[in-house]
Amino acid sequence: MRILMATMGLDIGGAETHIVELAKELKSQGHDVIIISNGGVYVPEVAAAGIRHYQAPLHQRSLLAMSRAWKILRRVIRLERPDIVHAHARIPAFLCGALCRKMKLPFVTTAHWVFDTSGALRYLTDWGERTVAVSDDIKAYLIREYGLPAEHISVTINGIDTEKFSPGVSGERVVREFGLDQSKPILSYVSRMDEDRALVAGQLIELGKVEEVFYDPRHPYTWALLSSLPQLAQQDTQLYSITGTPPSLYKEIVGDAFAPRNPYCMKIDTLLEPPMFQVTDTHYAKTWLLDPDAPKIEKPEGIKDIHEKLLKAFNI
Fold first, then answer.
1. Cβ atoms within 10 A of the Cβ of 20, count?
2. Which of 38, 88, 109, 179 could be bridged to 7 by S-S, CB 3.0 to 4.6 A?
3. Sign of dihedral through CA atoms 86, 88, 91, 94?
4. Domain 2-155, what architecture?
5. Domain ranges of the chain
6. What is the chain's percent helix, strand, coil content, to nearest 5?
7. Burial class (CB in 10 A: 0-12, 13-18, 19+), 285
8. For residue range 210-269, what is the model confidence (pLDDT) as tens digits?
9. What is the CB neighbour count within 10 angstroms for residue 10?
10. Strand, helix or coil for residue 48
11. How far is Cα 6 from Cα 69, in angstroms, rounded to an integer?
12. What is the pTM of this model?
């Protein structure tokens, strides 16, 4: 099968990594894969895998750029004659959807994130005959915001290249670069620092000594992050997955920004942003659960005695 993938660009990012790994895997299975995008650091990698790449300004929303991208897309489709077109972002999907209907080509899309749906922007979004969502929460968003039939949406969780990300890969370079103390637990938050992506990185929700935050966490999101540690997963059980979808930063956030992902969310969380509550002289957490009038909630069972569980997991 000849597959044409369209996306905004191929620079560093979660969706971009997903596209590159998917394209390489499809190629390894014998499919002919073509990618069209504005280019980026991943272009040499896909080219080395035998995947053809065409450049088009699919990353810009101006009428001039979209007109140029339309002409390039049309020319590539006529040249390559794909069996199916797979779009991975709003502008590529809008243009590819219109072309595929005109040229009678099967058209699918993948939803990697949520979009601003205010005003005319809703009509700039085009979903395929079938859509892939990268989480159950994105699937719920597509049904709620766009009325997509549930049976037309498939959920697939993004994977990783186990050759790149594996226990066999040393982290010594990172440890040296940041001067990390390996005798203590190390928590990392990995994300592009885009304004509409880095809500967690842009808010201080819990502050304290390593021992306090790691062994006596008080914020529900800290509980969720610790619960997601693969080392805590039991054999033949599903790894904990954080529920909910981050709020859209295209709209004003009312209340606690983490309320949609908080299974212990109270009414006040949807109305007022919590202050920093003091736990000890060195430990603070930004959650209404620490208000004296809040119900007493115990941290999840999975992270109780976390120190002993991690020692056991690492055979220490």
1. 22
2. 88
3. positive
4. 3-Layer(aba) Sandwich (3.40)
5. 2-155, 172-313
6. 35, 10, 50
7. buried
8. 889 988 999 999 998 888 887 776 666 677 778 777 666 656 778 998 888 899 999 999
9. 24
10. helix
11. 11
12. 0.64
